[in-house]
Structure formats: C-alpha cells, structure tokens
Amino acid sequence: MLRRETEDDPERMAAALAGLRRYQEARRARPLEPPPAGASTHGASLRDYGGEGPAVLFVPSLINPPNVLDLSPERSLLRWLAAEGGVRPYLLDWGWDLGSRSRLSVGGHVEHILMPLAKKLGGPQALVGYCLGGTMAAAAGQLLGAPVATLAAPWRFAGFPDDSRASLANLWQSAQPTVERLGLLPMEALQSAFWSLDPARTVAKFERFGRIDPASAEAAAFVTLEDWANDGPPIPGAAARELFEAMFARDVTGLGAWTVGGAVIAQEDLGRALHIYSATDRIVPAATAFTAGARIEVEQGHVGMVIGGGARQATWEPLAAWLREAGDAA
Question: Which residue has the higher pLDDT, 196 or 273?
Fold first, then answer.
C-alpha cells in the first residue's frame, strides 16, 4: 500500500518507510490496567469503572479492542465520566475467547451477550455505543426500553460511498474461503479495508511521524493510537457474514429494519436517544448516522471524537449532560 501511493515519488517512499520503521521500533508505554472483569458470558465480561450515579453500559465495536474508551490517563472517556459525569460507567469487554461466540451473528451478540449482561446490571440507566457498538446498543436499548447514545455509529448503511461498498464486497469475496475454514475473519483483512478508504492519508501520517521528536508526547500518543488501531481479535465468522452480506451490502432500513431475537429494530422505535456523529468521519461517514432522536455533529474524526484533543468539549461533556438528563427523567 505504501509502495502504490509513493511509486512515482522516491523521496516520499523513503520518508514513509522511515516513519513506519520508527513506529515499529518505538518504545511502548505500559498500557492502562483495566478494572477487573466482573459478570461474564460467552467469553465477554463487564468492567466496572466506579463512580457515583446510575449504571451506564458502554458497548464498543466488535472491531478493534474496547480500550479506545480507556486509552490513557488523559484520554479515557470512561475514567473521566466516573470522576465527573455523575454516572457509573461499565464497559462491555468482548474478550478474545472466540470459540464460545463463533456462531453468533452481530444480532446474536446483542441477544446472547449484550442483553444478558445488561440485565445483570439490573437494566442500565442508559446504553452508550461506539461505532458498530452503537448500532448494537440501539437494538438492545429498544428491547430493554432504555435510553441510548451512539458515538460514530452507522445505521443507514447505504450511506457508505459506492466505492467503499464495492471495496468491502471484494474484500468479503476474497476472505470468504478463510472465514469458512477458520470460522472467523482475521483482523489483518479488515485493516486492508480501512487503509483502502484513504491510502494517501495513511502514507502521510507515517511521513509526518518520521519527522517529529520520537521522545515527545505527540510521538507517544501516535504509537498508542496506532497500536490500538492495529490490534484486536478476529471477528466471529457469523458476525462477519451478517456485517458484510446484510449490513454493508444493503441498507439495514432497506431490509425492513434489523431483526434481533425475533424483534424488528427500527430507529423510529427507539425511545430517548442521542446520536453524536462526525462531519469528517472517513470510517463511518455522516451520511450513515441515525436520523431519529437528538443529534450532535462534530468536526473531529472517527477516533478523534472520543480521544482527540477536542474530544472533551465536543463529545464527552455533551454526552455527560445527556446522561444526567436521562437519569433525571427516569
């Protein structure tokens, strides 16, 4: 991918490769220790971040690790909310035990993992989902009758650009033999899809990284974020199939909404809901966002809206205010 983007510019190629090498060789800070795992099912568990107030269940995507919501002491939405937000955040950690959930579709994860764990909290005051986790939280929120907030979450899958949908269809076609053999979709296959969304930006970020002070806080933040983006368990085969064949291939609403556990999930049937989405998101474009419920548009990108320098003002504070209001209205 680096070669394709820089084949006519040897200087850029050298700079990008130097930045990539520096990233690979960079010293890593010790990651934050997550709270101990509590209630669990199918290899997934709840992590309690403490705090005073009603329980709020955070649902990360099935793609990439859940610690994007708890990345570092300065960039942890969950720890900030526990200290400042007037709620008690819990994180659903999907875990790495794929054997017990290899046959679960995306909807199956909602029905057999998310819903039972939510009920173990006595029914959370609200659910908050990030990326695909927001799509899943919306389904659980409708079924539980709980308020739902989504962050950078897709619902109108037809809003993905045609070239992105075609690229994902090709990826799925080439990956199917592996998925059928292993029962899972490797993370490496998904990474190639993410890179293809904006290959020039991928090259540029490594060029830039190669020029900054490797001992700086900026360099350390880059390494932490890039490690998160390149990490994560494979996606269970049944979930990957539903994601690519039902969701990305066609619009969920075009399917007559999404059926989870025999119930039809439609955004119009959500109760109290807040959707925070980004006008500059390349991973989940604004055109895919929920349209029903309260909406806040931000300018930070897909990841920047939850961990970037402006995330607290753009996302964290409005989310905390909405969660407090949802608690008061309960």
Answer: 273
